[in-house]
Structure prediction request, 603 residues.
Amino acid sequence: MKKYSFYTPKELKPNGWLRRQLEIQAQGLAGNLDKVWRDVKDSAWIGGNAEGWERVPYWLDGFIPLAYLLENEDMIARAKTYIDAILSHQKPSGWICPCADEAIPEYDTWAVQLISKVLVVYYECSGDERIPDALYRVMKNYYELLASKTISLFDWGRSRWYEGFVALNFLWERYKEEWIVALAKMLKEQGLDYEAQSKLWKRPVNHWKFETHIVNIGMMLKHEAVSCDLLGKEYTDVAERLVTILKAYNGMPVESFTGDECLSGLSAIHGTELCGVVEQMYSYEWLLAYTGESKWAERLEVLAFNALPATISDDMWAHQYDQLSNQIACQKFPARAIFGTNGRESHLFGLEPNYGCCTANFGQGWPKFALSAFMHDGDTVISSVPIPSSLKTDELSITLKTDYPFENSFLYTIESQKNITFKIRVPSFAKEIKVNGRAIGPCNELCFEISARETRQINVEFDAHPVLIDRPHDLKCVRCGSLVFSLPIDFEEKRLEYVTNGVERKYPYCDYEYIPTTEWQYGYSSPFFGLEKRKISDIPFSSKKPPVVVRAKVVRIPWGLEARYDTVCAEVPQSRTPFGEEKEVELYPYGCAKLRMTELPLV
Prediction:
């Protein structure tokens, strides 16, 4: 049984730097795809002749909560236009995807699972009473098609069977009809068994497989949490066992796993796909809600504060398909890409590098993260991810003022009309914890009883110190709290405007190469670091004005380039023998450093 419940965008609003981040997204690519990208503006989902499978649902999955969190009436109206068009094309049978009847057996029903999840998101944001009935008909039809063997799961639908459970759980709460359980069991029986495939993750190869596809894996981590209740199974924390394997053989320093496009091992010059990052975040949000275990919140933070902003431009008009830990340039490869199964432009910043799935899907990252700030269990309210937010229900108001993760001070103002228990998660790295100025011992949770008609302020402070984290190949990375730090590399931006396959790249939604202009061949010469906090600029994860830096001592080393590549550093340094004088440098948060060296030796 799920432990915590999410609040809706009607109840939970972003403040401070978080609201600014969402505003940048609304003004950027994710907020304007319906105006500039054919696969959304002319989609078959709304009666056009462009893509009619995953891209519009992917886009709506982030655009809808973004619109409602910002209370942006224009965006809300645009979202409704799409939902209205999708519902108007639903057939009497319940089938909703843009596909002719005779083509249904060959149509990959991953799109059914995805649009069903989107309809749940839309209902939670809008309260539109058309949605429960429309969703009921979608999933009842899905059940009838599977039960009659008119269709079966294959390819993406088979690999992502668990995505349908967001809608099935929603329907079960309202209808309690046995076909819902029967459909849940069919999806499980026909779906891919990832536990049985985990042996493939221990020796990644340059071969495309559904079983090692990084986005499938990011989504899959929540499969037990979302499905076990309907399936009548005991929760066993499968996700922890699978994360342990993934980290050991494919882990990156920012809690993600290499996957360009499939699992790629422990190399700092193999990257991970942006879709994989936002789907892993969504899995961790569900795992946190289902289990209440703080480990998922802490991992979620690291992804959100590092991997997500690192792979999107400051103005959020451009994104990478693949990001690398040690990324000294983002220039098109003249011949074979460094990536295992992705193309030569996958690491460029742009409109649609490699594939357009990330173009459509990356927008869910920040809005759904914002909706994880507070959760509840009856009369218990949990500050699960301490980001600047306000919660307001009929009986409760909570405002959290903070600049976390850039500093570690939190001011909660609580007004309650009823008795509640208020819990604050304390991260494992917190040191010297103080509550209202009073020092307390180490703990992982603070608990307060708030009486009816009481107004209370709670101030929590703690310290976090920069530390070296071991990485493979005897390399190190610097981490302070939930932020990973990198040596930034300055770059010249080369704008690429062109049209190909009917898709226009035009500023600001064009492509960009980032060409390095500063030195990057260093090792750490000291294990001691200084932390300097600065003001948050108008761009929270600015590549020019980072809100916090770490001062580090480094020395030049002959690192060298990877064989046959001019724009990729060697996987490991050719030599760790230092030369020249020691110097002090500023390390930037990983999410701010678009070109960076993150994994360095201590020499």
